[in-house]
Every structure is written in structure tokens, then in C-alpha cells.
Amino acid sequence: MYRIPSAADVTEVAEHLGITLTADEAAAYQRQLATMLANFDEFLQIRPTVIPPRYPGNRDAGYRPSAEEDPYGAWMWKCSIPGAADGLLTGKTVSYKDHIAVAGLPLTFGAYAMEGHIADYDATVVSRALEQGAEIIGKNVMNGLAGGFGFGGGFGDYGRPKNPHNPDHLTGGSSSGSAAALAAGEVDISYGGDQGGSIRMPASWSGIVGLKPTFGLVSHFGITFGSDQSIDYTGPMARTVADCAIALEAVAGYDGLDPRQTKEVPDHYDATSRLDEGVEGLRVGIMTEGFAHATPDVSESVHAAADVLAGLGAKLSEVSVPEHQTVSLAQKALGAEGALAIRGTGIFGAFARTFYPEDTITAITRLWQHHNDQLDPRGVLTLLAGAYSRRYFSGRLYARAQNVRPFFIGAYDRALADVDVLIMPTTPMQAPKYEPIQDRLEALEFALTRSANSHSSQNTQPFDFTGHPALSIPGEKKNGLPVGVQLVGPRFGDDLLLRVGQAYANAVDYEQIIAVA
């Protein structure tokens, strides 16, 4: 419902837009706005037939699991939605981070204020997984619009996912519940989201496999998290490299519903046919800058993984990419105004000819209109930074951040001209111990400073900006905790990274590496 604004209302909104109106001018605008709003409402009442994209068939409505059923706090929702009888994912169970739409299931984005919202459409990674025979068994807890506990702290509307390797330690975020469920063996494959490392960091800390694909390779339709869409990804997470490979192949390829995809994206992507070809003769570059701030245990484990590859016939060399130390500045500049722009245009953006999920857009817009006090402090800080960036730099900062992308892409591409794959720690540290914070101000300070300055995303965030594929695989444990080994390759070289990861997994006692106590 709407109401016709008064002249005083029009004056107030105009002032918010930086426009000064006289009383007579406000009255003139008010009369025309009354007509326009009536036209808008008339259009909404027409209700033409709009069929949301979704995989056909009835759905199990599911349920919220009890604490006894969910000992690691990994699940928002449990269900059973069977897919096709045959396909790449036949016999595999699949779950989704709770920012991915599954028709008929709740979609909360990690915020209490979204409780009761049910998606009426499927994200492309959902419909394609079902087409390939997957059984969807639920949605996973995430660091969301209201925060989360993947990195600790004191903000979050849902409970803390516990690290199955040691429940006293963190899982990483924001795909925290997906990582916990996988590490515990409760699901075969989970699709997460990655804007600064949110697939790979929980993979690193929780001892699983996580792939951030090449930008555009996997459709992002039906997925959103309120950040700049040019640094936003979805990708598979799994216990094994082989499952990660089939999970990628099942959903990758061009999709007309995702306007971010370009003509470079193939209709289908082969991630499995060369999976077991090994690494004989492959050139692996140990990237010097990737070991900055790494603990001795992490550095030792990653170098040991490189040595395993060398023993299999790969050729190791040291590689330097100095730009790796500054690329995060560009992404931070981009992210601030990008988040503000998403807030202005709507959670799914604007301007593209695609399907816009009306109910979801409305629900999140109402959250932003009426529940801003419930937002994650990091999200609030990003919006404030975006507002000041727009005020002081008049759009130049955002434009510059977008325009320098080819410079940073070129820096890594030059390194990848001399080697086939780069190797470095996924995160420079292992999963920290969880320290509960009860005091709100202390929790706020933690959210705004300590978690932001931990260097945890120093090796993940750059490749969200450049678009290169990046795969985290579990290396040798240290002190009972996982270590993530990150492999980075050329654009659309996702299959090569999986091939290297598979060679490593076949050469070590992989079951012991991923086993939980």
C-alpha cells in the first residue's frame, strides 16, 4: 500500500536528494506525483502471469533441525528434494549457503528480520544440480546481513557453527555452516559464496576443498549478498577434489539469467575428463608474497604440499607478484560504493533483462528500511564508507577501482605465463580459538578492527577482484588443525587446478588429513 505524499513530504524527500523547492514548486510536484503513484499502483494490480524459474515438481517443506540433530550448528534448514534419476550428481547429497534461493525453502541471508521469507524461485546452481541428479538436503548457516560467528565476535542472529576438527575453534566465513557440515561428513557437496574468500577461508580452517571459479563460469542468478556484483561468486565446496570437480561441471556454463556472464563463458564446462592426468611436467610457482604473515606451521605445510607435487614430476620455482600486496586496496575501494549502489538499486541490482525476484527484493528492502539497527557492523561500516566515498570523491574512487582491474589481472597473468599454477597458503593462519564476547561495545570493536586486520583474506581477496580461479585444498594438519593450500591458475583453468589438487590428494594419506577427531 502507498499513500499520497503531502507537499511537505515532497519538500523533505527533495531535500534528501539535494533539491530545494519553494512551497509552490512542491505543490506542483505533489500533484504530478499523486498521478504517477496511482499509475504505479495500477500496474502492480494488473498481476500478469510471471512464472519464476525453478526445477519442476513438488517439494518437501523441510524443518529446522534440533541441536541434538545438528551438533555442529551447521544447518539452517533440513529437507529432502530429489533430483533427476540420472546425472553427474546422482547419489550425491547437496546443500546451499543460505543466500542461495531454493524454491519452497526459507531464505534468510543470516538475519532474523528475514524469518518467514520463502523463496519462490531456484538459483541456477540449484536447478542445474537437480537436473544432474542431486538430492538437496538443506540450507547452511552463514555469516549474513546480521553478522555471524565464522570469524568469532559477538554479532550474529544464528548460532556459531563449530569446527569438527576442534569445536573450540572457528570455521571461517562466510560459508561457515557449509564448511562445518562438510567436514563432519553430513553432506557430500555444498555451494557457497565468495566475495573476499568466503568459500576458501572456511575450506582452509575446516579442512575441506573449496573452489572460487573463474568469474562468470558459474551463474550467479538467484544468489546475492549485498556487495558489488563484479567481485561476487558462487562455487562448490566438498570433502574431496573429485566431488568438487563434478559439482563444478554439473552447474557451470552460460545462463541467460545472469547478465554478468560474457561470450567467453562456454555453454558447458569439462572439469572431470582430465582430472587424473597428474602433474608430470607442470610448472608450479611458489608465490613469495603469498607467504607474508604466514605462521611457521602454515608455511611448512604449504611447502610440504609443493614438495609432494615436485615428487610427482612438477617443476617448482619461486615467483614474485609485487602487486599482490596492493590489490586489496582496489577491492576495498570498489566494495564500499558497490555495496551502497546495491542498496540503492535493490538487492539484485538493476538494468539487466533478467528475472527479478519480487518477493525477495521487497523483503530485503523492507529490512533495510526498518531494521537497519540489526545489520552486521562490518556491513554498516562498508555503507558508511561508501557514502563518504561518494560525498568526497564524487564517484571517481569507484570508477578508478573498476578501471585498474586490467592492471592487476595483467600482473598475475605475467606470472602465469612462466608457470602453470601458483601455490600459496589459503589463509596465513590456522583456525583461531573461539573467544565469546558478551559486551556489545567490545563486540563492535572486534567486528570493526581485530577481525578486519587479521590478514586472513590477504591471499583470497585478490582473486575475487581479478577473476582468476582459486582452489583451496587441505594440506598436512598441524597441531590437529587443518591448513589450507591455495592453487591459482589462468582464467577458465579451473580444471587444471582440480587436476593438481587431485594429484596431491592421491599422493598423500588424504583420508587421514580430512578425518576429524
Automatic annotation (TrEMBL):
Region (Disordered): 158-177
InterPro entries on file: Amidase, Amidase_CS, Amidase_dom, AS_sf
GO molecular function: catalytic activity
Stored Gene3D superfamilies: Amidase signature (AS) domain (3.90.1300.10)
PROSITE patterns: AMIDASES
Transmembrane segments annotated in the record for this chain: none
Domain annotation Amidase: ranges: 83-498
Pfam families linked to this entry: Amidase
Protein name: Amidase
Taxonomic source organism: Microlunatus endophyticus
